Amino acid sequence: MQSYQNGPEGGTKSANEVAPLIEDDYTEFHAPGRQVFLSSSVKLVLGILAISGIGTLALITGNFRNAPIIDQNASIVPKDVEVSSDGTLKLFDAADRYVLEDYDAKPTFSSFLPAVAGVYGKPVWSFYVNRGQGVASFGFVSKDYPILEFNAANKAYQLTPYIGFRTFVKGTRDGKEFITEPFSPATTRDLDSTDDQDTLPKRIMFVGANEFEIREMDAAHGLTTSVKYIVLPEETFGALVRRTNITNTGKSPVTLSVLDGLAQVEPVGGAIDWALKNMGRTLEGWMGVYQAGEGTTMPYYRMSTEPGDAASVKIELAGHYVLSFLEESDSNSTLLPIVYDSNAVFGRDTTLLEPDGLKSSSVSDILSRPQYGQARTSSAFATVEEITLQPGESLSIASFYGKTDHIEEVEPIANHIIRMGYVEEKFQLARDMINELTSSVETNTTNHLFDGAVKQMFLDNSLRGGIPMILGDVDASAKYSNYDEDERVKVFHVFSRIHGDLERDYNAFYIDDTYFSQGQGNFRDVAQNRRDDVTFTPRIGSFDVQMFLAFIQADAYEPLTVEAVIYFINDKNVAAQIAAESTGDPKSAEVLTNVLNGGPFRPGQLFQLIDSLGIIITTPKEQFIDKIVSASTDLPMATFGQGYWGDHWDYYIDLINSYLAIYPDGEETLMYDRELRYFFSTATVKPRSEKYVLTLTFDGKSYHVLQLDATEFDTDKEAEQDRFRSKKTGIVSFDASWQRTKDGGSAFTSSPIAKLFLLGSIKFATRDAYGMGIEYEGGRPGWNDAMNGLPGMVGSGMPETFELHQLLTYVKRVVDTYGRPVVVPAELGEMITSVNDALDELEASGFVEPEELSFDVPHDLFTYWDKVATAREKYRSEVQYYFSGETEEYTAKAVSKMIDRWLREIEIGIQRALKIGSDGYEDDGKSGIPPSYFAYNITSWELNGLTNAVGLPLVNAKSMSVLRFPLFLEGPTRYMKTVINDSAAVSDIYQKVRKSGLRDDELGMYYVSASLKGQSYDMGRMMAFSPGWLENQSIWMHMSYKYYLELLRGKLYDKFFDEMRGGGMLPYMDPVRYGRSLMECSSFLASSAFPDPSYHGRGFSARLSGSTAEFLSIWKLIFIGANPFFLDDEGKLSFSLKPVIPSWMFEDDDPNSAEPTYDADGNLTISFKLFAHIPVTYHSKQGGDLFGIAPNGYKVHLNDGSVQEISGGVISSELADKIRRIWDVKSIDAYF
Fold first, then answer.
1. Which of 142, 94, 84, 137 is nearest to 113 (CA)?
2. pTM
3. How many CB atoms lie within 10 A of CB 980?
4. What integer is the mean pLDDT of 379-406?
5. Sheet of 1099-1102, strands arranged across
6. Tens-place pLDDT, residues 481-510
7. How far apart, in Å, are the Cα atoms of 94 and each of 78, 83, 1168?
8. Can you give the C-alpha Rg of the chain in angstroms?
9. Rounded distance, CA 998 to CA 1010, Å?
10. What CA–CA distance (Å, rounded) separates 773 from 751?
11. Which residues, 6+ apart, have CB-to-CB distance to 428 below 8 Å?
12. pLDDT band, very low/low/confident/very high, at 86 (cuts 50, 70, 90)
């Protein structure tokens, strides 16, 4: 029998069990001078308007144009939307979903479902917008394989209501017929209109961490329609799941026929994104719709072959399926017929605006006619015929949109999903799964939005950097060990991907549709977003540090793209034994043995092969993969990509510091007793003589020298890698990615401290001619990659100089602490000698720093720069293809002495940069704020007889002058790292920045750059953008958060929290201005410099941003402290919590805050999750700020039932180690 639900969130009941919806409840509302009785739905609207800044009193005494009308035939009561006691709407519902009222009438935004189907699920990517029914595009793997075509945001906002999901309802009530389309743009409210909007539906969007819902309350027709979406979790097949619920909110029965589904479905046919956009009509010739069963209940959308005209033709067998059914309460469901012929629905209306076919025919008539799906783009509408709903009754249509490799696989999927309760189970699992994932940072303060934002930041940070999974737990010993202690323990990051989406349409995201799903990411993104992996998963140990340091190349650059680690089993007998133990038949054991011995693998690929080869595994999946990985060797993987960015190495010290905050006792072993390879890319950085190009200026009136094509694809390197290509498979071995010694030698390795010293030495030798910034000589800029023209201008960056200061300071501290020698490649030793000789010559030249600096580089400094650059180029030439294998050993004292000298030179350069200053609109260069970038004009040169690839002459520079730029926030942000222990110096920079052109006074935030008015377009693409947009004087959230983090590190606690709560950080921004969920980051906000004031403060480019990494570092400092583990005076491990918690997190008089919580003794409490595992409760007796102070004592509850009480703020070594290992500790109470 068909089932109905009692309201959009009610339990499932049969038609004769559903009672009429209870009439709207009314509450007395007191306003000055009058007494009004308001329904709960009107209270909802009043709350929304109050939050939006619209006066509620004016609304009450005036007309109700923004409120949903409750007429005599309908009751609209969104009971799951909470309304505060003061009548204001909470920005979240009972399920912690963010609530957006009138979503389709507000400024546009885009977002996405996280494409997390669980470790043992197969994800679908899905993007949505606040237009139409939300989902703008979805598919598998990448935008090349869509079910609904990928469109950039600007087009998605236009097209989604028409080519996306649609619902057409044809009904009869009280003898009157009607036809309506819920969520149609034609009935969107106009919030700026003075006309009465009461007859139009009220719409709300609910944004959850792993779901979203739209709801329309249509008083005119007495219907409430809700649509929910999830990515199907934990199944052997992937699908987007959609649940459409239609409720009769009127006072009389209504008979409905419904068409519900997709207006356009793309078939499977290979990578088709390009073809859809460039030859869409021709592409339709390959398209067809087939049936996996009788009738039209299981349509299968595929092309006949993959499009093309090559000699090799690939027949297409895979296809997209659409399965829909009415959910039943007491039995399995029955599939609904699908209308796939678009003409049957829309008739001749090719605009898809109106369902002309449904207007002129009944659903039964449409189904009785032939349908055609060849040589056209088809639809997928589930059909419901003439169902009568009593008042309060609902119908629920569940639909699955997925892909299979063969049409025969569709029917088993259909039989699986129509089981009673299956859909509800999966919706709940999708929510529970993400809740469990984000519970790693569960936080309970008085601010519910803040607590929710913490979870959302953790999720989005994990999507960009990946979530580290610990594999190899084959016994108790492994489970109690970390990556460094037991070679069986491995780390694999799941759910990661590059941040490509509707607004970042330039990025080609990739998400494996396999178990253990993941995709590659950009080096900078992954390095930043894994900064605190070890904080949340201590068992990873030094995994991240080792992986990223392994990517350092001989030339001190890194590859662009980071991939997942690979595994391989060295011992073939071990592979055979595991295969025999894990399978139930000899054939499966044989095939699995061949797979395991066939080369490297990743978990998802392994399970995919097992499925495709028919291998029968008899052990549980979790035990199976643990056993295999524990016996494997892991190896990080990456690919060159394009260009060498100047900042990739900036993030190593952050990773190391995070590791040391958990493992201070592991530093010596990590730095000296590990051996790491050197990544080998196919690109080579050219020497200056091959990239300093003489070319005409823009006006064509003179010549200037630019640094162009700084790197080249090296065919000899490619040939070297090709030596590792298998003649059997044609695949290049992973060994090709690591630099070797000559004559077929093995991969060359160095200790981590040696690689850091190599990195620091080369970067020191890459300082610009004035000794200030690090040159962008690899063809790409640093973090601010919108300065793409800066390398061409022979540019350099002070941010990298500040990071170099940090790097060398760290290396010096390590060698001073442990007194062990540092062994480096012999070729590097020669370069270091030349650098130090050049320093000797500079000192001997008698050069004296002038009081007033000229923009012309002094001759002595230019000569030093030229000699050092030549030494660097000679070194690179020697190690371009191989290391010799010879090494040079430096004593700790020698390294320390060298670094002391280099640091003095760097600090002189920093002071020089402060004197040179910045230059911009209304900027006289005397702000005292550290500049970010410089460029160099080559004022004299000589032709060297060479030409570049297009025939332009190449030159050798003979003299230079420095060029300045406006202020950028990156400069002072990174500079603060060098003075972080001097609160007065940090405060001085803060005050200067606040008074400078970097402050957006209207928004109370900080620009990524000051005004760029009058700057050259040579700088890069930022100059092409309008001020206030993208990287041109916008609010770049990542750099702003990085700046706020340094305030917190610099102990400017009051200033930090003033900035935070003043609207500088989420979730404390103005919700109306921000225009999207206050729990989700954006890449940038349009600043007050943008010409259109309605855009000011609005967030763009959703979520996957480095700002989440900064936010989590801020969270760590607030709730845990900078260094929870440390070594005491006797060198023993100790643990101490030193939070930085303001009093208002315990108790806040803000009416939107939650009530404070107390312990049995009346102390205020808040709680959080430590290391993603241990609940910690802070008890505050006084209730004031807890800024950087340790508790008076602890109670540590252990899993054996015992409680250890500790007096004072420090926990000693044995118990400290148990806390770090997490498994034995149940909870911690800390008392202040």
1. 137
2. 0.93
3. 15
4. 97
5. 1035-1036, 1082-1085, 1099-1102
6. 999 999 999 999 999 999 899 999 999 999
7. 12, 11, 20
8. 32
9. 5
10. 28
11. none
12. low
